[in-house]
């Protein structure tokens, strides 16, 4: 079990005055969504929580220990990040790429073993890219790449998931499948994981997240249980966009109004 905590955290958005200090804790079993318009700082927040960017102030802690005090390998075992953008570093197949998820668990020159391969194959199958295992990543479609990125983190098997727009490029079926996977990671009996994701789709957030953090372009923020945060007037202010609201299957649905 691992909990991820932001304590008086001030993220460093270049060229912007320091925004609100963020103090929240993502508990095992919880699924948090980060909402906000383009440029609000969602990716910056996720990268700061992952220890890839220094904050202007405050701390990130895992199970009460400052991230800065943990080694990179230990962080990589505990925390997985699905990036919004990715480049092909060198030619690699889909299977080889998924296996990169095992690197935090191997020593410097250790080759992946049978169990690593089994985990990678299971993750590729779960993300519906197992039929592409021999293909070069450079030949994949946008949605296939996105599913491989998630399969790679699934192979890594972290206790904490940070996902930057995990449904980017995905068709409706795969959007739902990925949200179900992330919810399942959080809910897993006995070993629930802490999950936080940035989302642009309010309706996915309303359906799948239990806590929401709203990030405004001026650095202000608010967070809390989903139902309290899905206030139409607050969401309209967040996006500068009028919304119509309905309820389907017990969950609110938001539609932009022209
Ligand atoms: N290296 C950098 N140099 C200058 N500005 C930067 C840099 N990195 C990020 N920014 C700026 O910081 C702001 C926050 O960026 P960030 O990627 O966190 O936003 P976001 O909320 O994830 O946006 P989006 O919804 O478009 O993905 C943006 O205005 C961006 O242009």
Automatic annotation (TrEMBL):
Among the GO molecular function terms of this UniProt record, one is: ATP binding
Pfam families named among the record's database cross-references = ABC_tran
What sections of the sequence does the record tag as coiled-coil? none
Q: Where is the ABC transporter domain?
A: 4-242
What UniProt keywords are attached to this protein's entry?
ATP-binding, Nucleotide-binding
Q: Does the keyword Lipid metabolism apply?
A: no
Domain of life the protein comes from: Bacteria
Its recorded name reads ABC transporter
Natural source organism: Halomonas heilongjiangensis
């Amino acid at each position: 079990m691992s909990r991820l905590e932001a304590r008086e955290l001030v993220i460093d958005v270049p060229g912007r005055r320091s925004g609100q200090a963020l103090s929240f804790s993502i508990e095992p079993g919880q699924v948090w969504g980060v909402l906000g318009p383009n440029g609000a700082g969602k990716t910056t927040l996720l990268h700061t929580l992952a220890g890839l960017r220094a904050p202007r102030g405050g701390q990130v802690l895992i199970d009460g220990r400052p991230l800065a005090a943990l080694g990179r390998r230990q962080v990589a075992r505990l925390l997985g990040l699905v990036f919004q953008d990715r480049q092909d570093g060198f030619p690699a197949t889909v299977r080889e790429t998924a296996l990169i998820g095992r690197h935090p668990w191997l020593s410097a020159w250790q080759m992946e073993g049978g169990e690593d391969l089994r985990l990678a194959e299971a993750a590729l199958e779960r993300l519906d890219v197992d039929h592409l295992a021999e293909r070069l990543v450079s030949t994949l479609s946008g949605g296939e790449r996105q599913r491989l990125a998630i399969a790679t983190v699934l192979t890594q098997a972290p206790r904490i998931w940070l996902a930057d727009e995990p449904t980017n490029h995905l068709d409706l079926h795969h959007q739902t499948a990925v949200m179900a996977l992330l919810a399942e990671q959080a809910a897993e009996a006995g070993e629930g994981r802490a999950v936080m994701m940035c989302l642009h789709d309010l309706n996915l957030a309303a359906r799948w997240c239990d806590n929401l953090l709203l990030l405004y372009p001026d650095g202000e923020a608010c967070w809390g249980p989903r139902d309290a945060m899905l206030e139409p007037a607050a969401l309209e202010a967040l996006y500068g966009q009028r919304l119509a609201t309905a309820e389907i299957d017990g969950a609110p649905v938001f539609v932009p109004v022209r």
